[in-house]
Design brief:
The chain is mainly alpha-helical. The chain has one domain. Helices cover 61% and strands 2% of the residues. It contains 21 helices and 4 strands. A two-stranded antiparallel ribbon has the order 1-2. A two-stranded antiparallel sheet has the order 3-4. Strand 3 and strand 4 form a beta hairpin. Helix 7 packs across helix 16 and helix 12 crosses helix 14. The longest helix is centred in the middle third of the chain and has 33 residues. The chain is globular, with a radius of gyration of 21 Å. It starts with a helix and ends in a 29-residue tail after the last helix. 51% of the residues are buried. The C terminus is likely disordered.
Length: 428
């Protein structure tokens, strides 16, 4: 991955993203969120062809001269990148997702491509609906799995006693947070979702995620694999909380009992949120997953029909599975207006949380090597980075095809706004 070359090049420069401080310069890695931002703006103005071009060729995260990191590759190459992790019982989430989506290894890419082209399941949907599905498919399916992959990579090297490898952990953090958080406080990657749900639920899952990213980085430095795995589970838990909150809130906004005329965008949003978390739900409770999906799935089959979403049924199913995901009602928060009340099943909660802790404890802990992880990182990486870079880049330039060099021909930008789309870039 060319991102690794960038990590070496700037290994002596830290980057601050929100409250997270990396050991290496992650600005160019985090800049991938500018592609998401631009895709959102383009789809908002009806230019899906140019948004698709950015998705497939990249534009803002320049990793080599004229070559860009590509969002689509995060979804299409995850299978090969996950293979060695899965053999070590890491990134099993990938198997959970592919199994749920019919053993389709390209499930995320298919979701996004259908939204961008208006084909498949999303044929005939309004532009406002397609925009929500496309952007959120990128944010909460493509990036969700790739962030987990990067974090597990760091743990893999820890388990193999080949660490400390904080670069992979830093990359995972950068792809969770993005560069625009430092500009608007919200951003365009997964970090943005908890920020937007905190006002509705009184809970900000980012507080958990950011604390876990920082603690996990420290554990990776010190080769404390079990503890780092535990923090990864906390990050995953934060993702699940935010996506389930989005599912509950937007099922409420799509319910004719509470909303006289649900918008296409709202109905698309609830399905986009649910699609990013349903595999986790199905893994612990197939019945609950079926209830949620039957109430929120949005496609050409029901786009022209009145909403049949029962938000109380959705909320009840979500509350039922929270303890099975080691999430308490207090950690989830409360949405005003719903009649369904969340009540903790303490026995189930304890059982699930204990199981997660046991899984983390079973990860091999290698212990510290004497020097601190930060010292090792600074001495080794900064001391030899130039030599490694010169050899690696020279070899790459001679041998590797310019697969991600953006072609000169691309669709023109269209600045004409879609009248029916009520959402704006800042409301992704």
């Amino acid at each position: 991955m060319k991102i690794a070359i960038l990590t070496l090049i700037a290994a002596c420069e830290a980057t601050t993203l929100a409250s997270y401080e990396s050991f290496a310069d992650m600005e160019k890695v985090a800049a991938i969120d500018l592609d998401v931002k631009e895709m959102s703006s383009l789809m908002n103005s009806g230019n899906f062809s140019y948004a698709k071009w950015i998705y497939e060729f990249g534009k803002n995260a320049e990793v080599t001269a004229g070559g860009y990191e590509i969002i689509q590759k995060f979804s299409t190459e995850i299978q090969s990148k996950a293979a060695d992790l899965i053999t070590e019982d890491l990134l099993l989430e990938y198997l959970t997702f592919t199994s749920y989506y019919g053993n389709n290894e390209l499930y995320a890419d298919l979701f996004v491509q259908n939204a961008l082209t208006g084909e498949g399941e999303f044929k005939g949907l309004s532009n406002s609906a397609r925009k929500q599905l496309g952007v959120k498919g990128v944010q909460y399916q493509v990036f969700l799995m790739f962030v987990l992959r990067e974090l597990y990579e760091a743990i893999k090297f820890c388990v193999r006693n080949q660490g400390p490898r904080t670069a992979e952990w830093d990359e995972g953090a950068a792809l969770y947070i993005g560069s625009q958080v430092n500009v608007d406080g919200v951003g365009f990657l997964q970090y943005s979702l908890p920020e937007k749900r905190k006002g509705s639920f009184g809970i900000n899952a980012n507080e958990r995620a950011m604390a876990a990213l920082t603690k996990g980085q420290e554990h990776i430095k010190n080769n404390e694999c079990s503890q780092a795995t535990g923090q990864l589970y906390e990050i995953r838990k934060s993702m699940q909380i935010a996506l389930l909150q989005g599912t509950v809130e937007y099922s409420f906004k799509s319910d004719l009992t509470y909303t006289s005329s649900p918008s296409d965008a709202a109905r698309a949003e609830v399905w986009a949120f649910a699609a990013g978390v349903l595999p986790f739900v199905h893994d612990v409770d197939k019945s609950a997953a079926s209830i949620i999906r039957s109430n929120v799935e949005y496609s050409y089959r029901n786009a022209n029909l009145s909403s049949t979403t029962n938000s109380e049924a959705v909320a009840s199913a979500v509350y039922k599975i929270l303890p099975k995901l080691c999430i308490s009602c207090e950690e989830f928060g409360t949405l005003s207006g719903l009649n369904t009340v969340c009540e903790n099943n303490q026995a189930q909660l304890d059982l699930s949380c204990d199981a997660l802790q046991l899984n983390a404890d079973q990860t091999v802990t290698n212990g510290s090597s004497g020097l601190s992880g930060g010292a090792i990182t600074g001495i080794v990486v900064c001391g030899v980075a130039i030599v490694v870079i010169m050899i690696g880049v020279a070899f790459f330039m001679m041998k590797a095809p310019p697969a991600n060099t953006s072609p000169s021909l691309k669709p023109e930008e269209n600045t004409e706004e879609i009248a029916e789309d009520e959402s704006t870039v800042s409301q992704v």
